[in-house]
Design goal:
Blueprint lengths: L2 H14 L5 H8 L8 H25 L3 H17 L3 H15 L3 H27 L1
Length: 131
């Protein structure tokens, strides 16, 4: 199987399992001979950004800065949607709403769910980078 064929097979498997949505497939399709690592570079940026999301949200929650939570999580929701991480983006949407309502208990619970979703998604993206 060619490298491109292996990537397409991997992406198809991720789509079928519901780990990514069509945004990821579209991201991968933007690669060509002039920029063969385009999707990998975007994924690497997402992985780097995702390392700080938990601590950043937690620090804002600890400070009672719900507006800060909304701002940080909203930006991360956009990044998540770009790479096809629909489950992560969904948790971000719910967490934004809880922060707008200043519901500390719900925000704390959703932060843990966000961390779990990010960890799961990132493990699949790390595997993608090895294909």
């Amino acid at each position: 199987m060619t490298e491109n064929g292996a990537v397409q097979q991997f992406v198809g498997d991720l789509l079928q399992k519901g780990i990514v949505d069509v945004n990821f497939e579209q991201l991968v399709s933007l690669q060509d001979e002039s920029n063969p690592r385009f999707a990998a570079e975007v994924v690497e940026m997402f992985l780097e950004k995702s390392k700080g999301i938990g601590p950043e949200v937690e620090n804002n929650l600890t400070a009672g800065n719900f507006a800060g939570v909304v701002e940080v999580v909203h930006q991360f929701k956009g990044s998540s949607a770009t790479v096809g991480a629909h489950a992560v983006a969904g948790v971000c949407s719910t967490l934004c709403q809880a922060a707008k309502e200043e519901n500390m208990r719900e925000c704390s619970s959703l932060l843990e769910k966000l961390r779990a979703e990010v960890t799961d998604f990132n493990s699949h993206m790390e595997a993608f980078l090895k294909v």
